[in-house]
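Entry for the shared binder. Reason: the reviewer on the internal report wants the predicted structure included alongside the sequence.
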Amino acid sequence: MNSEDLTDILIEALEVFVNHIIYVRGLYPEQIFKKRRVYNVPVYVSIFPSLNSYILNVLKAARSLQQQGELECVLLQFYHDEVPLNECYKFDIKQLQQFIDVPEREEAELPMLHDRFLIDFEQELRSSLYKLAERLKPLEKLPKGAKFKVSLNTTQEAFVKFSHNPYYQDFPWLCDHLKLEQEKRVISLLPLTHLYSIGLILNLEIF
């Protein structure tokens, strides 16, 4: 499995999880979500144009960084009145790097590379979505008017190159200075799920 194939699978999994979290947390009315199947897994995805455009542009940027090996993690943060809420979802991408372009002689040691038809991946994705929904049920309801944003963690050098790329000028990115402050007051880190097939770990961080 080459890096491009693995990146495409990763980005689609991120799209599924972002939509799923937003749906389960009731951030928007259920009417703007439609049920469809992804890798033979039933999921709810947004059909609202502006929301879809935002998610699409975020994932386009994530894909570009991942292809260059410069994407460390993806953060989905809820906030209200411009103030971050104590709920953040961290997709650990660094775990994925060890599976990219593995030498043929070492492939036998990595079962995930033999999942040619993504059967194991489908089962893991279905199980992960179910477990995620169950673990999010006890959380308090988000305040009315809450919003969300997605941050991409990368290197400073990659950010500078990315911000000057004309291909992304219609969707500019800014440096998030709140992250450093949040990291100092993390009080809990709850593992939510792990997609071993593509080396993706999803954690829930409570600040």
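Summary line for the report: Confidence is low (pLDDT under 50) at residues 104-111, 180-188.
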